[in-house]
Structures are given as structure tokens and as C-alpha cells.
């Protein structure tokens, strides 16, 4: 079984390597270059499309350059599945910190608990779905583009003055060696404070692209989180190491 999985993973790497070089190829030509049947290459492309590594058009496919360069893009179906899983850990009357992550903010769409207080530095909460029973609190602070995130002293003072039951934190990288990291210096402190001011349940959300990666600025150690919610493409060896730290890993299907 492991050998079969390794073979598929190796083939996927080869497909991406070829597409990265050639940018665009027909399905038939790609199958020929890889040395597999059309049915096999279509199954492979289905998986790579779900992971957002390729863009498929009728009869051909394209290497998705954007997915490998910008955090706000990504495998939307997977990110929604991760967000949906968060709702199982939110209870009535909870106060919830949500950081600037698109995956973390997307979890709001699936919350079913009543009478929540949502505290976030993510200005995009204004465009998300709203519940009349919820209170929404923006931290205030300096507005940074293009992520539309609030940072700085005002934001940190707001978070420091509050306590939350749950935090939902997205990131740029999760690695055994370097912990949880972000690309944005000004967001690292905000995220750290949200974690420290949470007293019941700390949830880290990260799709497979982030796990095993290290970004520029450390937010925290992995072990401070109660849960990591990720997807089925996350490397098994890393999951086992994270679980050994006392973190419960949830893999959405």
C-alpha cells in the first residue's frame, strides 16, 4: 500500500515538474510524456485540481503559478471543508478570536452555535455572512492592504483587554522545527496575543500546502494548540510528529 502511495506521489511530482516547465499541455500529451493511460492521468489531474496545483480546461491543463505564490489563493474546496470542521468546537455564547487567515474567516460560514461574539482583525468579516444573534468586534488599528487586516498598537491593545473561549488561527507555515509561522511581521504579534488570550480551545487551520513549511515570522510553538485541522493530503509522517506533541489532528476528507 505504501509503495503504491509513494508511486502516485512521485508521478504527481513529475506531472507538476513538466507542467511548470511547459506551462500548458494537452491531457493526451501529458499522459504520453508520463507514460500512463488517459484514465490514470485524468485521475491524477482530478487530485491535483482539488489541491489547486493545476487548472484544468477542456482537453488540456495549466500549472497554477498563483497557488504557489500567494497565501490568499488556494484549494477552495479543501479550505471550505476545513472551515466546516471548525464548527464542531464552537459552543453557544462563546467568544471567538479569528485572525486574518481566509481559511479561519471562512469557518464563520458554517458556525451553528448561538449568541457568539466574534473578535477579529480581519476587515473582510464585513463581506462575510452574518448572524443576527452574533456580536462582531473589529480590533481597530492600522489597515494593511492587500489582505485588509488591522494591525498595530490599537489592535494589540484591544486583544490584550479581552479573553476568548476559542481562537481560530490560520498561518503561512507549520513545521516541526520552527513551529507556526506567518509571512507578515505585523500579524505575528496579533496572532500570538489571540492565542495567549484564549483559555479553552485553540484551533490551528492549515491546508496541506502549509504543513511542513516555514515562513518568515514565528507565531508560536505547535504544541500550544489543542487541534490542527488540515486535509487528507497532509504528510502522514508530519501528522504523527504533531500528534506526539499532544495536538489532536483532524483531517477533512
From TrEMBL:
Keyword Transferase tagged: no
PROSITE patterns found in the cross-reference section: HTH_DEOR_1, HTH_DEOR_2
Parts of the chain that traverse the membrane: none
Gene3D superfamilies: 3.40.50.1360, Winged helix-like DNA-binding domain superfamily/Winged helix DNA-binding domain
Gene Ontology MF, one: DNA binding
A Pfam family: DeoRC
Record's protein name: DeoR family transcriptional regulator
Segments forming domain HTH deoR-type: 8-63
Annotated keywords: DNA-binding, Transcription, Transcription regulation
SMART domains on file: DeoRC, HTH_DEOR
